[in-house]
Amino acid sequence: MDKSRFSLLLLDPGEIYFEDFSCTFIPADATRKTYDIKSQEGRLKMCSKSLVFEPKDYTKPLIKIPFKECVVIEEWKGGAKFIESDNALSINCREYIEMLEGNVIAPYQFKDSANFLFLLNYATISNCLTMISQLRRASTLPSVEQSNMIAAIVRSRQSRVTFDPLWLDLYEKIMLETPADKVCPLNINPGRCVLTTMRLYFQPYNNIDTYPVMKINLNSIKRIVKRRFLLRHIGLEIYSTSDSSNANSHIYLSFRNPAERDTLYETILEQSELKLDNLEQNVITLQWQNGIISNYDYLLFINSLGDRTINDLTQYPVFPWIISNYTSKTLDLNNPENYRDLSKPVGALNPDRLQRLLDRYNEMASPKFIYGSHYSTPGFVLYYLARLYPHYVLCMQGGRFDHPDRMFNSMADAYKNCYNNMADFKELIPEFYDTSQEGKFLLNSLGINFGLRHNNVKVGDVELPPWAENPKRFVEILKSALESDIVSTNLHHWIDLIFGYKQKDEEAIISNNLFYHLCYEGNVDLESIEDPNDRHALEVQIMEFGQIPKQVFTVPHPQRKVGIILKEPHQIPEMNHSRITISELQLTTSFNSHKNSVSHLFINVDSTKITSVGYDSKLKVFSLIQNRQVRSANIGSMPLSSCIELPDSNTVVIGSWDNQILLYDMDYGRVTITALAHEDKITCLVYGKQSSLLLSGSGDCSVRVWKSVQPTTKDLILDCLFKHLDHNSAVQCINFEPQEHYFAVGTEDGEVYIWDVKQFIIYKKYYVSNKVNTLVYSPDGQRIAIGCDDGTFQVLEVATGMPVFSKVLPSKVCNLKWKGHFLTVGCGNGILSLWNMFEVKLLQEIEAHSDAIWTVDISGDWKIIVTGSQDRSIKVWHCKFDDEHEERS
Questions:
Q1: Side-chain half-sphere CA neighbours of 224 within 13 A
Q2: Residue whose C-alpha is closest to residue 856's, from 882, 821, 831
Q3: Is residue 89 in a domain?
Q4: Strand partners, 877
């Protein structure tokens, strides 16, 4: 089959192609003698706003006849004796358009009135004319009514088309069918979406695609994203990997309403064949912080979260200007003066221009704005991509290219305009940093005639700065700049402006980042506007102004860590290297002498003994060398919740459910101090070796701070009680920051308090999803891992409160322990999981116990992990590292 020159891009933006007919075009000046020479075989395309004739002869132009320009469309009444068929369509129009003459991409040729005669080879004129007449009648209506009438025609055709079950395999079952549109830049293609137990199908209602149906295997789908399309939450973008020649690796669909979209989305997720990639937002953020994800890939990911996609020019991915020097012969990427200030929007880079804009803003009536032009619109995207996609430009601009002097002719001029011009604030697009494409969008490789500039010079390739000899090198330098330490340490500021908390409202005003109000989603309730013409006008206006991305972050975005090495006391040699990994946990021994849940345990400094307490009121000591219990002591009659060892002594501090703190002397085997420390049970204890502070948490909603606790202390209350800190609900867990300048408290109502140790005031306060069972600081003290009763496992950036990692586990999270790059998670279902938090990946998950894992400890050399459980057992695990680490050890 010959490749068709016809494309939806030859139609008006959003115009729909229905079907085509084999025909012969008879020019008005054809005679019997010239009939064979002048007649043209081809296909007549019936579209929602026009008829398009595509001749078989590639040198002949395609002819587009807009319905609005037609005077007469009727069945041909005969008259030419050399034409035997009466199955013909006669058209008289005021204007028509010729496209792709000589198969060359060029501005369309608009021709004056003409008569057209098309002989239909197979279709019946009476059947075709009914539909064509309806579409012509729609073209005479106002735009809104025209759109409604066309939509009704589309729905009517949709209802008559069914999915052919012969496409299915023998055991494949249809789960859902729904009308949908395939979305491509500047156009949509209606069809039917069918979900089965094995595949997702899209069947277009026309023959524009190579295959009559597109199919995507569910097991090849890696990611599914809900999208906002044309200001409505009706889009669904699906990414997959498939080797099938007739299956797309990517498809963007829109639906009639959010309910239909959401139903398909949820039904897809229910299918057992689906295996999605783990691309949670907060996993990627933490990987980016650790340097696993590049700045380029992270910006692409955030754009996707913000509803930016290459399939929608109104919401195309936006990237920042990075380099500010486009005139020097050389470029030093280590010199900060060559970089744009990422803490400011483009419009605020030039202080003189900003002041003029603010003067105008201050005199403006509400709703005020600083910038009347946006940083990303379809026109701006095609400004950069005109040489790569000239057919897109012709589609959007009604068959014409922009004035040659207004085109993207020079990088230096483009940046100069964005820096100085009072109406130019546009950012860049991903292609400027995509080294895989080698900067091809900067070359006029198609040889398009864009016209002559004012100096009589023909528009050709984009003029590059002196420091780049060719487009490939130019993009490579920009990519290197994007990945530089200078950008890495400042990129979070730009993210705050475009996707984060500085995007709108008061913070946008403070940051000089306020755009025209129609740029912001939700500022205008389109559904509440009853007049369809007013609503349509507003939609067009919003499209032309550009749209702010969906807000992804509501708190300051964390900074990327550059050149930071994690350090921790007793850390094993070279543990900061990301390639070190634990390959296996091997069970070496277990102890089962507790008669009730093991609530807390610790490994002593030399990793020879384990000390534990339980709900059976027992304190027990186990020797790892002798592999047996060496001590058991009754400590009161109530469950014991926690135990810690005082440094440089053989004394254990114990917390009890009878509201008491006890000091137990291991040398003499007796309790030396008993203190009624709280008004409810003691839930947790922690000791700071650097600060010499003991912290106790209780069900009475308080944390008490004890100073200079020693084995020789006579009265804990009188001699050591230093501070009493109240909270809103029962305290569940406490942990010191590694430098002990702060400590974190988790409570029953899901609040996390960060206390300043020097002043004992609240430094930060966050709310998480549910009761906080456990929390622990990262070795660098900049993050805090939190485990909740609802299974939430989260890592927060302490400075901003932003979750940089989040996952919901099948069972409650009972205990967390973080050393080096590794973090253990003990869960309510007895599962012990081990994570590499540098690469943010799960290393191992084992069924360690038959019930909840309440307590975990790790030896200083990371060779031993000990777990204690509600199933009354204590288990000792040996950590086996990869071969590389074993050799170094």
A1: 20
A2: 831
A3: yes
A4: 587, 865
Same domain, 225 and 334: no
How is residue 751 written in tokens?
């609040």
Tokens representing residue 49 in the block? 């706003």
Q: Which domain holds residue 411?
A: 295-545
- Token reading at 784: 């805090």
Q: Are 119 and 55 in the same domain?
A: yes
pLDDT at residue 564 in the model: 47
pLDDT score for 543: 72
Cis (ω within 30 of 0) for the bond into 573? Answer: no
**Closest listed residue to residue 445, CA positions, set 457, 431, 461:** 461
Is the Cα torsion angle 155, 161, 167, 173 positive or negative in sign? positive
Cα–Cα distance between 812 and 772 in angstroms, integer? 10
| Residue 396 belongs to some domain of the structure | yes
Here the CATH number for the domain that contains residue 302 is 1.10.1540.10
Please give the span between the terminal C-alpha atoms of the chain, in angstroms, as a whole number: 66
| The residue to which tokens 């007649």 are assigned | 39
CA distance 874 to 889: 27
Distance, CA of 68 to chain centre: 43
As a whole number, the mean pLDDT across the chain is: 90
Between CA 453 and CA 439 the distance in angstroms is 23
pLDDT (0 to 100) of residue 583: 64
Q: How is residue 540 annotated by DSSP?
A: H
Closest CA to 342 of 493, 143, 157, 477: 493
Tell me, yes or no, whether 167 lies in a domain.
yes
Assign 619 to helix, strand or coil: strand
Is the same domain home to 170 and 70?
no
Sign of CA dihedral 392, 394, 397, 403: positive
Q: What number of other Cβ atoms are within 10 A of residue 237's Cβ?
A: 21
What's the structural domain count of the chain? 3
Ranges of the chain with pLDDT below 50? 1, 243-247, 564-580, 884-889
Question: How far is the C-alpha of 807 from the C-alpha of 150, rounded, in Å?
Answer: 45
432 and 524 fall within a common domain: yes
Report pLDDT for 887: 41
CA separation for the pair 770, 801 (Å, rounded): 16
Q: Is residue 49 within 8 Å of residue 15, measured between CB atoms?
A: yes
